[in-house]
Amino acid sequence: MYTSDEKIKRLKDSLFGQILFTIFCTIFGLIYEKFSHEVYSFYMIYAFAIPLVLAILPYIVIIRRSDRMRIPGEITISIWNMAVATLTVGSLFKGVIEIYGTTNKLTAVYPIAGGVLAVAAVFTYFFHKERTEEETSQTA
Amino acid sequence: MKKHKFTIVYMLVLTSFTVYMGLNTFVLSSVYETDTSAMNSSLFGEETVNTLSEADATVTLNGETTTITNDTEESDDEESDNAENEDTKVKDNDEEDSDDTDDNNDEADPDSSKDSESHGPGSAKKSGKHGKPGSSSDSESSGSSKPGAKKGDTSNSDTTAQADSSENKTTTDSSDNKTETGSSDSDSSSQTESLDDESTSASTSSELTSGSVIGTYDNEDARITITEYTYEDTQVYVADVTLSSVEYIKTAFADDSYGKNVTETVSSMASDNNAVLAINGDNYGSQESGYVIRNGIIYRDEAGTNDVLCIYADGSMEVVSPDEYTAQELIDKGVWQAFSFGPSLIEEGTVTVSEDDEVGKARASNPRTAIGIVDDLHYLIVVSDGRTDESEGLSLYQLAEFMDSLGATTAYNLDGGGSSTMVFNGTLINNPTTTGNSIKEREVNDIVYIG
């Protein structure tokens, strides 16, 4: 059982982590492209957009509208963060092999795994309700 | 806490998988075929595919002339005959050189400049049919070597090493060399020409400043002229190849094995296969699909997404879409070699790439390798330097324009970047580099060679 404040605090922690991850992806992509002799890959250049769009923006929206929106529980946030990490790492890796000029069919694992995790996170957000202390006390 | 553990475990799995992916993609090798020496001679209606004979071949590299003759029982007679022949050749060369000089003098006259055959790319486009290899009437290689043009320090030993075949005898005639050196010096104007502004549409935007012959190979089956150009602040090496049969354009795999991440340097593969001239191929192993047809044998029949360059047994060259034909249909059509890299640079004499329509991943200036055809059994093999202060590199469009100016009617881009390598007669011709910091050959999957 968690209070709403604790949930928001956890969300803010995740937001902070995702901001750091986005900054890392941006710098990594810039440095990699800098030394790739102008052989470019959209997967490398825009990898930072995945945590930015899928994590930072929705987390900010939820935090700012926490009084009107359901705050995701710890399980949901964990699974969602794993999905974002999987998709982002997959994008970076795809960028590396594209810039090198090669292919690997196993790169398809990343979007598949990321998609499955994202669906699981959405499922838990809507159907796995973590009760807050307030809700518990009201029930009692 | 258990939930955090689950997250940590998942991240470890994700990291481990990514490390495995990296190894699987770049390091771990898998051999699918261990013997790739087979050649489909039926395409030529013969029992075996002929190998380029070194008999009576004359090789010139950086001003050093090497003559390779057959070592038979009548060696003494042969030697004297060859000596006579060589004397005759030298005389012929002298005559041709003087002809060239005349041609160059004539170039001051715009009308007469059109008669000069193939010294500059612009004029080469109008050269039309070339004579069969060995024909003395063609003045193409008569300009011959430009002393000290490039890599002079390494040429001597390498030239000798190449000629160390078991049944052949190598002689280096310094007097001939001097003769050629003299003629080359006097003929230097023929080797440094500006692109004729009126000769090609491409020439108007190009910066082709010079072309100097740095090596030649000449025998009854093949004539090869290696010329170094400066184009768009880039050193470009062009092998002008005329053959008596396309069967002398062969390919070889690293370690004589077909597989993934099986690599070897172009120099090493060229040496293993007694190649006169070798360049890197399409690095088939870096792709998981795309037809691989080599020496008439299908190694991969899975269609890819890249254009396919087909070199047919009749010597013609064509770029086809992988959707048009299966690999077996290509063999049935008589395909001798097929490459899956691309893109196509020139088709039917028209440049097919634009400045804005490069291959998505590599639009910038880089080292490049390309192959093209001018006319029947007359091919162009082009390698450019890049990524260095001395040599910027070419975009695909610039490469296409350059080959267009050389008269290519069909041209195709092969693997480039750090892979771009040209080896002639055992000597590394270009300056291969991956990072631009050091000149070093990259190990690649395959080569295209003349041999």
Count of helical regions of chain B: 10
Low-confidence stretches of chain B: 72-206
Residues in β-strands, percent of chain B: 25-35%
| Quantity of strands of chain B, as a count | 23
Widest β-sheet, arrangement of strands of chain B = 4-3-2-5-6-7-19-18-20-16-17
What structural category arises from helix and sheet content of chain A?
mainly alpha
Shape of chain A: elongated
**How many separate domains of chain A?**
1
Distance between the termini of chain B: 68 Å
β-sheet strand percentage of chain A: under 5%
Describe this structure in words.
The complex is a heterodimer of chains A (140) and B (451). Chain A is mostly helical and 140 residues long. Chain A has helices at residues 4-34, 42-45, 49-64, 74-100, 109-127, 133-139. Chain A has one domain (4-126). With 451 residues, chain B is an alpha+beta fold. Chain B has one domain (1-451). Chain B has helices spanning 2-26, 75-106, 110-113, 121-124, 152-162, 174-186, 188-191, 266-272, 327-332, 396-405, and strands at 30-33, 57-61, 64-70, 168-172, 210-218, 222-231, 234-243, 249-253, 258-260, 277-280, 292-294, 297-300, 308-312, 317-320, 335-340, 344-347, 350-351, 368-375, 378-384, 410-414, 422-424, 427-428, 446-450. In chain B, helix 2 runs parallel beside helix 6. The longest helix of chain B has 32 residues, at 75-106. Chain A binds chain B through residues 35, 37-41, 74-75, 78, 81-82, 85-86, 89, 93, 96-107, 109, and chain B through 3-4, 6-7, 10-11, 14, 17-18, 21-22, 24-26, 283, 286-289, 361-366, 387, 415, 417, 435-436.
Concise synopsis of the structure shown:
By secondary structure, chain A is an all-alpha fold. Chain A is built from six helices and no strands.
What is the fold's blueprint, element by element?
The complex is a heterodimer of chains A (140) and B (451).
Chain A: H1 4-34, H2 42-45, H3 49-64, H4 74-100, H5 109-127, H6 133-139
Helix pairs in contact in A: 1-3, 1-4, 3-4, 4-5
Chain B: H1 2-26, E1 30-33, E2 57-61, E3 64-70, H2 75-106, H3 110-113, H4 121-124, H5 152-162, E4 168-172, H6 174-186, H7 188-191, E5 210-218, E6 222-231, E7 234-243, E8 249-253, E9 258-260, H8 266-272, E10 277-280, E11 292-294, E12 297-300, E13 308-312, E14 317-320, H9 327-332, E15 335-340, E16 344-347, E17 350-351, E18 368-375, E19 378-384, H10 396-405, E20 410-414, E21 422-424, E22 427-428, E23 446-450
